[in-house]
């Protein structure tokens, strides 16, 4: 019986086919909907909804058991924020139908194995937690759960495995204890104590080289940025001291205790953690982001302490809500604000802390940056009387702590803040920040304000920025984004090339052809040549300058004008920049003319790379060159560099994909040959086709290798430059007996870290080369430490 | 293992809207197909003064922008309050639909919608006076969009005639 769905493209005339097959589908959809929606806002109590649903599902078991099993397994895996609602439901079903309970547990174990094999560690975590809570619902016997925990913790005894592997198994056990610690201790306290001792020993001996690379703030005050396992351990210790009394988690099964305790329990089958394989990708370590404590929320409910298990559960749930609903900002905001138990906690503070925690997470936020901006705006809309104040308080706090904030996080903060302001008419109490005016311009606070204002200008216009800040802030206002034309007026007529510049300008305006323009340019003397022994075909910086300055001047009106100009005269630009020095010089000219308009520089560099007038390595060399040293700490320089690296990465991926597709095509063709009959004609044609494809594959293979070589070279150039600059600085400071830890140094070393963190996936491939060529033991230990911390992340 | 729980994980901001381009060369089915694969967005309710640079900055937040085409008044050839933003990938365009649509640019809530793809001629307003159709008939005063709607401008008594 066909189960094809009624497709959108149909004209609706096929409804007679639908009638026979739709009923089971409709019922399955309804079941899915009922199960997914239980626990949401309702006129009835949660208990009566669960009771009702259990009845419905029990009745549907004979016909829809497999579907129900699959849906329940899916919600266990995907909706951890509603864990206890669903464990209660399963508990009720188990009480009514023991066999179903057993089949569910089996299905869960199967799913657990599959998720582990598929590197879906977060989902596996939720599955284990679900199984734990099923102990509370009398579905699973406590001793068998303890046995599973013992197998997990025994992973810490394994040798030659990545630390992140044993980390994960320990994390699974510890993070389940808020739910099930009490029950397990009541039944098996000796075994549990032994487990916790083993964990304690492991935590004491594990390495924490990675921590400083992941901390948002380097300062211990006011809130230490703790390693995630250390923080969780402290929370569990406290919970144990409180005799496992946990009051925050919503436990619907308590109301059903009389029913559930009558149920027969199942034993978990013995579960051996799958062995470590080279392609296993365990979750990366984290640092717990904390920015608030109970002193920050002066009125209303008290914020649970940093080592309370309540804090862990709240944060975990809020993260999960964002994970479930990040694509739907209205739903996400609503779900966050309707967190169960919100009246007992300063929910707005928790939400803001969790959101910034994600935004600042190193190496990368879990979701795209702009999502957090829009989510916060949505939250402000829903809570206009309270959330904006918390957000302002948070912003103020983060401004105060800029001195110790990681540079990458400062980038994200200023991107968020400027974008946020642009949605609220740029209203801000700038006067509160006049303290930054007294500081040197290279210190974090004035730098931050300057970069924020520059970003605000990009979203509006120069005069707007002048209008929104107090007059005292004039020094921090971004420059007016004007073009600097060297050959502007007759005052410059003495400059070499001036006359040609005028001629070229007129030629362009009169739509001269590329040949005509090249002829005009022949008249430009080459300052690099001594005699005229050449035809002048080599690198001529003046020629580049005269042509490009004039062209960009004529096209300065908008991005589109400039892009058209680059496209129209692509040929000429290619000729002029045929060598590395030419490529470098073109970038220098772009900077010279547009140095007041960093955004324009960014988009022009992007176009020059995409049209292959310059290559990525040239851009890297240019940014690290002495001529750009004074701009080295400006935000836009790093925007350009990271954008360049990303373009390189995407280029390699694109060709790799083409290669894969060509290989797949060949494979399919060869299969078809085997399957079809043996006709001479067909064989001849397909041989030709195969031959063509094989040639194509060979060409693509070469292309991939060449692209990867270019990519590796790009990273080598970048790292080499960093090492040179940092070493020079460190040596200079040492010989001068000066403290090396200047704002410039902090910026530079953190930018080096940023390269590793933002592009870790790609860099992994080249670790061998990096270690052999660059990050050797001879390196200054400050620089080497960055590399070692990166390796410790086992990304 | 994987069932997707359609009931729960919707992605409505990415859905195709009810609007269909009346000048589209092809049938409804073809237009919908293109909309569902599109990397291009139509952006509406812009101020006439909003620049390409501003649009670039905002829309770059969801990914690399391939090109922007500012909508022009057919007669005056000046910006008339809309544009097209084309991305290199569909994913980046989707994120713009999820996180840029409905937020502010130049203090105005802008609206984005899927577009079947830019074709020469589509950068012009289709209103009788040269701007967008919506500016022909609206009755409110919007200083960032030329003041009153075109029809309303014709209906209003001209200013300053009674001075002498």
Give me a quick take on this structure.
Chain B: This is Nuclear cap-binding protein subunit 2. With 795 residues, chain A is an all-alpha fold.
What features would you describe in this structure?
The complex is a heterodimer of chains A (795) and B (164). Chain A is mainly alpha-helical. Chain A has helices at residues 15-37, 46-78, 83-96, 98-117, 121-136, 142-153, 163-205, 211-214, 228-241, 257-260, 309-325, 329-337, 347-359, 369-382, 387-400, 407-422, 444-459, 462-468, 498-509, 514-521, 541-554, 559-568, 570-576, 580-594, 598-610, 616-624, 635-675, 680-735, 743-758, 760-763, 767-774, 781-792. Chain A is built from 32 helices and no strands. In chain A, α11 (309-325) packs across α13 (347-359). Chain B has a domain at 25-127: RRM (RNA recognition motif) domain (Alpha-Beta Plaits). Chain B has helices at residues 28-37, 52-59, 90-99, 133-137, 150-155; strands spanning 40-44, 65-72, 79-87, 104-105, 108-109, 111-115, 141-142, 147-148. Chain B has a four-stranded antiparallel β-sheet. In chain B, strands 4-5 form a two-stranded antiparallel ribbon. Chain B has a two-stranded antiparallel ribbon with strand order 7-8. Chain A: Residues 28-240 form the MIF4G domain.
List the helices and strands and how they pair.
The complex is a heterodimer of chains A (795) and B (164).
Chain A (H helix, E strand, L loop, with lengths): L14 H23 L8 H33 L4 H14 L1 H20 L3 H16 L5 H12 L9 H43 L5 H4 L13 H14 L15 H4 L48 H17 L3 H9 L9 H13 L9 H14 L4 H14 L6 H16 L21 H16 L2 H7 L29 H12 L4 H8 L19 H14 L4 H10 L1 H7 L3 H15 L3 H13 L5 H9 L10 H41 L4 H56 L7 H16 L1 H4 L3 H8 L6 H12 L3
Helix pairs in contact in A: 1-2, 2-3, 2-4, 2-5, 3-4, 3-5, 4-5, 5-7, 6-7, 7-9, 11-12, 11-13, 12-14, 13-15, 14-16, 16-17, 19-20, 19-21, 21-24, 22-25, 24-25, 24-26, 25-27, 26-27, 26-28, 27-28, 28-29, 29-32
Chain B lengths: L27 H10 L2 E5 L7 H8 L5 E8 L6 E9 L2 H10 L4 E2 L2 E2 L1 E5 L17 H5 L3 E2 L4 E2 L1 H6 L9
Antiparallel strand pairs in B: 1-3, 1-6, 2-3, 4-5, 7-8
């Amino acid at each position: 019986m066909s189960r094809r769905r009624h497709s959108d493209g149909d004209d609706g005339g096929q409804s007679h086919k639908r009638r026979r097959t739709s009923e089971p589908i409709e019922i399955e959809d309804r079941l899915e909907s009922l199960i997914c929606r239980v626990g949401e806002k309702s006129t009835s109590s949660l208990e009566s909804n669960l009771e009702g649903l259990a009845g419905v599902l029990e009745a549907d078991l004979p016909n829809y058991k497999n579907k129900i099993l699959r849906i329940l397994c899916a919600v266990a895996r995907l909706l951890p924020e509603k864990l206890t609602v669903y464990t209660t439901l399963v508990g009720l079903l188990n009480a009514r139908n023991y066999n179903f309970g057993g089949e569910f547990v089996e299905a869960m174990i199967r799913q657990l194995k599959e998720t582990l094999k598929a590197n879906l560690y977060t989902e596996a975590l939720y599955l284990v937690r679900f199984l734990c809570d099923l102990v509370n619902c009398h579905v699973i016997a406590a001793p068998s759960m303890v046995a599973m925990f013992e197998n997990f913790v025994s992973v810490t005894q394994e040798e030659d495995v990545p630390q992140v592997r044993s980390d994960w198994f320990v994390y699974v056990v510890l993070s389940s204890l808020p739910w099930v610690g009490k029950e397990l201790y009541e039944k098996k306290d000796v075994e549990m104590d032994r487990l916790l001792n083993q964990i304690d020993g492991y935590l004491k001996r594990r390495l924490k080289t990675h921590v400083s690379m992941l901390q948002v703030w380097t300062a211990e005050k006011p809130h230490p940025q703790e390693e995630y396992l250390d923080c969780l351990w402290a929370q569990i210790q406290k919970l144990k001291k409180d005799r496992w009394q946990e009051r925050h988690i919503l436990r619907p099964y308590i109301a059903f205790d009389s029913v559930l305790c009558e149920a027969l329990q199942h034993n978990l089958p013995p579960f051996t953690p799958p062995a470590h394989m080279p392609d296993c990708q365990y979750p990366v370590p984290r640092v717990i982001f904390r920015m608030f404590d109970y002193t920050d929320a002066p009125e209303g409910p008290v914020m649970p302490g940093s080592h309370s298990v309540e804090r862990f559960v709240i944060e975990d749930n809020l993260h999960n809500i964002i994970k479930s609903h990040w694509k739907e900002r209205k739903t996400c905001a609503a779900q966050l604000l309707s967190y169960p138990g919100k009246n007992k906690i300063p929910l707005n503070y928790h939400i803001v802390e969790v959101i910034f925690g994600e935004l600042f997470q190193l190496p990368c936020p879990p979701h795209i940056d702009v999502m957090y901006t829009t989510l916060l705006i949505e939250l402000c809309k829903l809570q206009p009387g309270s959330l904006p104040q918390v957000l302002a308080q948070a912003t103020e706090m983060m401004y105060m702590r800029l001195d110790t904030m990681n540079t990458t996080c400062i980038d994200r903060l200023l991107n968020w803040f400027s974008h946020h302001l642009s949605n609220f008419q740029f209203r801000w109490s700038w006067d509160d920040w006049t303290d930054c005016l007294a500081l040197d311009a290279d210190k974090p606070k004035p730098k931050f304000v300057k970069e924020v204002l520059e970003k605000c200008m990009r979203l509006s216009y120069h005069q707007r920025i002048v209008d929104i800040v107090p007059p005292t802030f004039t020094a921090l206002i971004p420059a007016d984004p004007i073009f600097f034309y060297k050959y502007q007026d007759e005052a410059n007529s003495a400059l070499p090339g001036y006359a040609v510049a005028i001629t070229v300008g007129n030629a362009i305006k009169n739509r001269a052809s590329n040949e005509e323009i090249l002829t005009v340019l022949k008249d430009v003397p080459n300052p690099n040549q001594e005699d005229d022994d050449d035809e002048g075909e080599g690198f001529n910086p003046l020629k580049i300058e005269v042509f490009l300055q004039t062209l960009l001047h004529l096209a300065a009106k908008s991005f589109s004008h400039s892009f058209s100009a680059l496209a129209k005269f692509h040929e000429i630009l290619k000729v002029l920049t045929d060598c590395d020095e030419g490529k470098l010089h073109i970038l220098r000219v772009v900077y010279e003319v547009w140095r007041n308009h960093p955004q324009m520089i960014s988009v022009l560099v992007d176009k020059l790379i995409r049209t292959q007038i310059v290559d990525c390595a040239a851009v890297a060399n240019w940014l690290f060159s002495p001529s750009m040293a004074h701009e080295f700490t400006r935000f836009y320089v790093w925007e350009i560099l990271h954008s360049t690296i990303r373009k390189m990465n995407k280029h390699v991926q694109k060709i790799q994909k083409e290669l894969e597709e060509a290989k797949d095509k060949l494979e399919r063709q060869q299969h078809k040959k085997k399957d079809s009959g043996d006709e001479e004609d067909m064989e001849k044609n397909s041989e030709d086709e195969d031959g063509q494809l094989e040639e194509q594959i060979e060409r693509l293979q070469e292309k991939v290798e060449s692209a990867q070589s270019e990519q590796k070279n790009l990273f080598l150039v970048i790292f080499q430059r960093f090492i040179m600059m940092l070493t020079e600085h460190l040596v200079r400071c040492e010989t001068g007996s000066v403290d090396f830890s200047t704002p410039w140094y902090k910026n530079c070393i953190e930018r080096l870290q940023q390269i590793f963190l933002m592009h870790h996936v790609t860099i992994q491939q080249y670790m061998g080369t990096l270690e052999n060529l660059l990050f050797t033991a001879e390196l200054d230990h400050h620089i080497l430490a960055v590399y070692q911390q990166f390796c410790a992340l086992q990304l | 293992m994987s069932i997707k729980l359609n009931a729960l994980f919707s992605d409505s901001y990415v859905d195709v809207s009810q609007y269909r381009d009346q000048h589209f060369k092809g049938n409804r089915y073809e237009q919908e197909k293109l909309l569902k694969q599109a990397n291009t967005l139509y952006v509406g309710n812009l101020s006439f003064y909003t620049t390409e640079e501003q649009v670039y900055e905002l829309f770059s937040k969801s990914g690399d922008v391939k090109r922007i085409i500012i909508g022009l008044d057919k007669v005056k050839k000046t910006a008339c309050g809309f544009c097209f933003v084309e991305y290199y990938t569909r994913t980046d365009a989707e994120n713009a639909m999820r996180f840029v649509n409905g937020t502010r640019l130049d203090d105005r809530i802008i609206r984005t919608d899927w577009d079947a793809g830019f074709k020469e001629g589509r950068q012009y307003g289709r209103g009788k006076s040269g701007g967008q159709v919506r500016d022909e008939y609206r009755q409110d005063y919007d200083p960032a969009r030329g003041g009153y709607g075109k029809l309303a401008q014709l209906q209003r008594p001209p200013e300053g005639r009674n001075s002498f």
